[in-house]
Amino acid sequence: MIQYASIILFVIGIYGLFVSKNVIKMIVSLNIMEIGLNIFIISIGFVGGGAIAPIISSTQDLGLIFVDPLPQALVLTAIVIGVGTTALALAFAKTIYKTYNTFELDEMEESA
Amino acid sequence: MILNILIGIGIAFFGFVLQTSIAGINRKIVGRLQKRHGPRWYQEFIDIFKLLSKRSITHGWIFDFGVIMALGGIIATAMFMPLTNNFLAFENFDNFFIFVYLIAVGMLGMAMSASGSGNPWASIGVMRALTTMLAYEVPFLIVVLTIINLTGNSSLTEIMLYQQASGNNWFLIALPIGGLVGFIALMGMLGKKPFETYVAPAEIASGPMVEYGGKQLGMLFIMNEISAFIEVSLFVHLFLGGATNIFEFLIKYFVVYTLANLISSVNGRFKIDQVVKFFYKWPLIMAVTQAVIAIYFGWVI
Amino acid sequence: MASVELLILFLVGAGVIAYILTRFNTFLGSIFTIFAVMFVFVSLAGYGFGMNMDTTVNILPGISFTETYLGFYFAIIIVFVYLMVSFFHPYYLSEYKYKNSYNLLFLLSLAGILGAFYTDNFLNLFFFFELIIWTTMFLIPQGKSKEAAVSYFGFSIAGSVAMLIGIFITYNVSGTFSIYQGLAALSGTNAIFVFVLFIIAAFAKLGSFPLHIWLPIAHGNAPHPFSPVLSGALVKLGAFIGVLALIRIAPATGLFTAMDLPIGQYVVAILGSMSIVFGTLMAIKEDDAKKLLAYSSMSHGGYILVAFSILNGIAFAGGFYHILAHALASAGAFMAIAAVARATGTTKMKELGGMIHKMPITYLAYLIAIISMAGIPPMGGFISKWLIFQAVIDKGMIFVGIAVFFGSVGSFLYVFRPLAALFLGQELTEYKKVKEAPLLMLIPTFILMGLNVYTGVFPGGILKFINNIIVELGYTGIEVSTYEINGTNGILNPALIGLIFAVGSGIAFLIFIVLKKSRKVELMDTYTAANFVHDEHLLHYAVDFYAPLERLYEKQSNWMTKFYTALAEKVRELGKLGKYLFMSKNISTTVFWIVAIIIFLLWGEVL
Amino acid sequence: MNAVLLIVIPLLAAFISIVSKKIAPYLLLVVGLFNIVLLFFLENGLVFIGGFDVAMNSDLLGISLLLDTYARMALWLINGLILVIFCLNFKSYKAFSSILLLAMAGLNGLLLTNDLFNFFVFLEISGIAAYLITSANKKPVSTFRYLVIGAIGSSLFLFGVVVLYAMYGTLNMIVMIQAIQASGNYAEVILPFTLMFIGLGVEAKLLPFNAWVKGVLGHSNTLTGPMIAGVYAAAMSFVLGRFITNLFVFEGSLLIVVTVLLALGILAGDVMAFSSTKTREILLFSSIAQASIVALLFVNGVIIWAVYLIIANALSKTVMFLVINKATKDVGSDESEALRGLFVNNKLVGLTFTLVTLSVMGLPLLAGFVIKLNFLTQLAGIGQIVLIAIILVASVIEGIYFVRLIVKLWYPGESEISVKYNYSFKAVFIVIALALLVFGTYSTPLTKLDNTIDTVMEVVNNG
Amino acid sequence: MLSTKYTEKTKLTKDEIDRKWWEVGDYFRRNSLWLLMYCTGCCAVELPPSMTSAYDMERLGMGPMATPRQADILLVSGYLSLKTLRRLIYTYEQMSEPKYVIGLGSCPINGGIYHDSHAVINQLDQYIPVDVYVAGCMPNPESILNGFVDLMESIKNKTANSWKKYRDNNEWYKQNQKDALGEVIIHDEFHE
To answer: ipTM of this model?
Structure first.
């Protein structure tokens, strides 16, 4: 269930990127998309009814159920990277504003 | 070989005499047609010799060289011409294309000489002559293509013999449409009146000939007579079954030339682009029709 | 023993040396180029005729050679044209912007030509073709127009690309890149595909309708000494591919029983005919002498195609002979024009006049070349046209017949135009100081004059050699003795024609010389209806020479140019559309494409 | 000696360089040289980072790096090019040395890593470095657009990776390949593969995902042009090659879509270049087409020649962008009309530019021709005549616009322009042009290497 | 055995040969006289009847020609203004020798009804030599043809030597022409 929710979030982010022309709004959409993605990652690691710590012991207990710890680790990294990207994007947004005095991409006249 | 060459020269000379006389007779005929007395039948000879006797001018070496080349080319062409089916200078070498292309050397020489005179009318005349040539050659050659395709031989003698062998079934009769095209093309070749665009004395001061006087003009007259001889003979050999003896040839020759001349004398003159349009309309269509009928369907009368 | 490989390496080396020499002294470098080409020509002529070339490969990797009569015939003609042209270099190069590289590229392209005609491997063939294309492509912009190179390159590369696709289809079918095994292995639909592709290549190189548009642009704007190479030599590459396609592949298409000719061949013949007609009409209209000759090359390319599409020995003999005759004639004519252009600085006929009084030898060279080009005896062009006419007539090809006759008569018209407007006519004041070309440039002029006459008078030896090629291609050669050529419907004795022409001219000369000597008058002293004209330009008829004829097809004459311009414009518009679709400033566009692709993919498979 | 050093040292140097701006440029030089030298001593094989022994040996858990000949060639190219490009811009773009170190670390990681998530991390690192590099263009909007599209791309990639992880429970590429092959159910991996392909496609400039290219390369300078069009394009093509040949299984509709997209990319790239008049746009569109060709070759399993094509392209594009961007900077416009006669006073540069362009066009005597002919032959061998036709038709268009460009650059218009290239530029141009010329005429080494690379790919395939 | 005795061969000199040929030529010339009609005045009206069926000039071997190069006779039919005279002289000089001039009507003889005009010359033979004058205003076709026959007669009698006269007395003629026409200074399309 939570997976659907995360995918919806992801799609909302995409939609935001699709429609918005504002730099800040785009960054926000990007973040929404990333959050959706992160939740999705977490969600696939969850295994219901687990009772044991996710540590591999020397004895191979194959019947034991535990929540997959790897996605959590991944998500941490992904968040960090996302934050880095966002920071960079904001830095660029600042430059853009300095140069053009607006956040609206439509109003800028940069020949590209 | 020497003998053959001498015979060839003889044929060329004969052609000159023949055509000049017949042209003179035709002048008389046309005179009578116009209720005039007309000149003497040998008037053409007098004209030519008078021109040769005059003192002429020259516009530089190409002016003379072109004339020599013109006359030389035409004489050379005439030397290949068979008179009857067994009288010719170089047996087996009377290939049709030699006549069509060797005659062009003469034309080129004359054109060159005329342009070399520096007179714009001469160049215009040459332009008209060449344009007319472009018009009449193609239908004519298509008809000849048909003939050669049927006879399987491009030698004039062989074509003559082919017609005679099939009981004098001349190609004028066997290929009636083609024969008509051939005759129209002959009119064009001779520069007879609906197609007499390139001399046009009142319009472009006799075209290529504008700067000639004296001996150069005389030589060009000789050249003109011999080339008329070649053209009419070609028609006789291709369409009228050639000739078995010289008298037959003379009669056919006279009839063809006179007919052309008579038609000419009751006609006005086309404009140059009208000539081209005309030849690329009816004669070409007729020639192609004839060729398709004769070659692909095999319908030869 | 002359080795093909060593000759090629020699040319590459010589190119580098010529580059260095030219850097220091243009004249020296060009003289060196002459000797380099001469060396190649001599070794080729010395060993090639007897098929004694060494074809082993020791150094060049991945390249293999074989020796065929066909390849040698093309090679020797082209090398000869190169040799003739190289004599012009010392006098032209100094004007060019990048004169050092001129000789280098010239020799490199010659190396490519040697390789192309001696190789037996498709990939090598392609390699050498491309080499020729790009080396020559850089020579062209040294002339007048910089854009000429682009259209030359575009069409050439399109041609070789078509050929390459054909090669790969062949490879796919036969698993080999060997030319002869590969083409032999083709059959059925594949053969037709390869045939069509090769024909496209041949048309593009030969500049035949409908791929002819580059020809006048490239020929007209190339450097003056390079135009003869383009027209006399390089377009013959197309003929070579044409031979491969029409004779070696010869796919089993349906048969026209009336003419006993496969449909594929007949279509090529018809296209060749159109090329003859278009070339002739356009040449008649053209004002630039070099462009005029370029259109004439197009028309002659049509003759070559017609000849090779009629599958019998006599037509092939005509085609091969025409290649030689046209190479000589067109080289001669272009070189004459080049000499004039060097002296006057223009090739526009309306700006020139009366050059004959300044450059009589050049004039003679041009005259003899155009007599051959127009197919008038006693020059080489007549022999080949005679053979081609024979084949056309025997097959009863009426529509092709119209074209070949039209082209043949039309060629009088267009070749005469430069003669009248450029060489003859009034002597214009601005060229009073012009002099005849220097001696070194007259050497090739004389040689070409001689050869044009020789090919027209004594074709026996050459035709015997051509018979070898025809036999090699699997057809029976024509009957030819020293003096006589036996066609299917007639015998030709060119030597006799030459002799009789001489006799006739002798008689005419006799008449001329016996009669009273003429008085020399000035060119301006001419009949003007008693008007006083003091400006020779007013008495010089050079503009719109065939105006009444041109008027008949004026509107239609630029259709093909328009078509290709429109094509280029369409490609450009397509590019703009692409930029609009994919290169938008909006991020939304990219997002849209991503989403669209995902949805498209998942539609059938997952969702 | 460990392959990890290739990543770690640049990263470390990047951090150090932030501390001391002065030594940063020299640090980059040292690190670059070190990497190149180091590559000589490293052995092929897997390198494990972290994890514990049992897991490593049995299940290939944990992060591992894979160094094979493929990666080695890529690394040499990337590090070398970065070093050269930086040397050329030593004076003008000193401040970018830490970013270049970061880019070096990221790209090396991309090429070496054997772990999908780790790959994502490196993708982001190199991506961030790329965004920073392009900020040298002083066109923040273009850069921002690049950033957004790049972020979307990497998100999609991550999405795909996660889905794969959910399906097969591993992130190790080799294990995953085996798992996918074992399961044999290709229909269900279409989604992740599509997502990953798009993610990589954004960076590798494949057609519909590359809207950023125009903004970024269209205003590039002597640093960003070669970096993005040369180094990044090469690295991404290498990576794409590895993914396509090893991991991705293109079948059914996915294969059709990918092939169509790539074919479209080739044609559209060249057509767009044909319609451009700005020199930089011509170059960038042509590089789009080239990238698509490379991907198409990988899809059809023509690996070794695709690799050569990448290398040749990277070198050629480096030279071309350097020449053009330097001229643009001096002249102030990149319209091809404005650059008329650029080579009149720079014959050597002109010669090298011409040779390099001819190589890109695939004309003989140059490496491009050998490569083109060989990959076409291989395509013909597997019967892909249609693709050959597409590539060749595109090459006609390509030929036309390049020739038009070259002719324009060689022959002056009304006004003469003067652009000065210093000796280091010239030296680089000459070396690259000579290399292309040498390998174009003497192609035996290329064909020899053919086998060795294929065997390494075998090793990868077998685990 | 060669004869040692010197006998003078009756060898014709070059001039004599020329003269003999010239006599042969005279026959052709008088039987084929081609006209260049310089139709300046009203007398030209009389030429068509003399050419067509009624009088049929062609039976004498005569006919109109388009250019002076081809023509033998310069037929000046009517008055000559100064402007025309200049062109007449130009044309006359372009004709190839032997050439003859016929003046038609009274105007070339004495100016006729224009005798007091400032723009018309009165006497043609002051400027170019004339072989035959045909008087009358206008002369009818019979007299025109009679004039032609007279010319033929005089050619036969070797008295039609006007062209030689022009050559021999060129300076005199030139001087007369110059006096009448004046020097020409500007040369272009519109001036002379």
So the answer is: 0.84
Distance CA E15, CA E20 (A): 9
Strand C485-486 and strand C491-492: pairing? antiparallel
Residue type, C164: L
C579: in domain: yes
Q: How confident is the model at residue B49 (pLDDT cuts 50, 70, 90)?
A: confident
For domain E29-181, the question of CATH label 3.30.300.20 is answered with: no
**In-domain check, residue A26:** yes
This prediction's pTM: 0.88
Instruction: Name the DSSP class of B57.
Output: E
A59 within some domain: no
Q: For residues C362 and C436, is the Cβ–Cβ distance under 8 A?
A: yes
Longest Cα separation, chain D: 75
User: Does A83 reside within a domain?
Assistant: yes
Q: At B30, list the tokens.
A: 């046309």
Per CB-CB distance under 8 Å, the chain A contacts of C587 are 17, 26
| DSSP-assigned beta bridge partners for residue C486 | C479, C491
- Number of domains, chain C: 1
Q: Is C481 on the interface with B (CB under 8 A)?
A: no
Residue C136 backbone dihedrals phi, psi, to 5 degrees: -70, -30
What's phi and psi for D300, nearest 5 deg? Answer: -90, 10
Q: What is the mean pLDDT of residues C553-573?
A: 86
Residues 6+ apart with CB under 8 A from C72: C44, C48, C49, C51, C53, C117, C118
Q: Is C321 inside a domain boundary?
A: no
Distance in angstroms (rounded) separating the CA atoms of residues D323 and D137? 16
Q: In Å, how far is E2's CA from the nearest CA of chain B? A: 35
CB pairs under 8 A between B and C: 259
Residue D160 token pair: 């795909």
Contact D144 A96 (CB under 8 A): yes
Q: What is the pLDDT of residues B164-194, one digit of tens each?
A: 887 777 888 888 888 888 898 888 888 887 8
What is the domain range of residue C583? 559-605
Distance CA C586, CA D141 (A): 11
Q: How many CB atoms lie within 10 A of CB E108?
A: 31
Q: Where are the domains of chain E?
A: 29-181
Within 10 A of E3 (CB to CB), how many other CB atoms are there?
A: 6
CA–CA separation, E17 and E35 (whole Å): 29
Q: Do B120 and C541 touch (CB under 8 A)?
A: yes
With b for 16 or more beta-carbon neighbours within 10 A and e for fewer, the D340-374 pattern comes to bbbbbebeebbbbbbbbbbbbbbbbbbbbbbbbbb
Q: For residue D209, which residues of chain C lie inside 8 Å, CB to CB?
A: 590, 593-594
Which residues are CB-neighbours of E149 under 8 A, at least 6 positions away?
E60
Is B60 within 8 Å of B116 (Cβ atoms)? yes
Pairing of strands C255-256, C261-262: antiparallel
Contacts of C425 in chain B (CB under 8 A): 115-116, 118, 123
* Number of compact structural domains in chain A: 1
Contact between chain B and chain A (3 or more Cβ pairs less than 8 Å apart): no
A71 assigned to some structural domain: yes
Nearest CA in chain C to E70: C527
Domain interval for residue A17: 2-47+66-105
Mean pLDDT across chain D, nearest whole number? Answer: 83
Beta strand E73-77 pairing with E34-38: parallel
Amino acid at D282: I
| HSE-up (13 A, CA, CB side) for residue A28 | 8
Which residues on adjacent β-strands are paired with residue C465?
Answer: none
Q: Could you tell me which of C301, C300, C291, C280 has the C-alpha nearest to residue C413?
A: C280
Q: Do E70 and B34 touch (CB under 8 A)?
A: no
* Chain B residue numbers touching E32 (CB-CB < 8 A): 43, 46-47, 50
Supply the CATH number for residue A41's domain: 1.10.287.3510
Q: Give CA separation, C378 vs B104, C374, D121, in Å.
A: 11, 11, 83
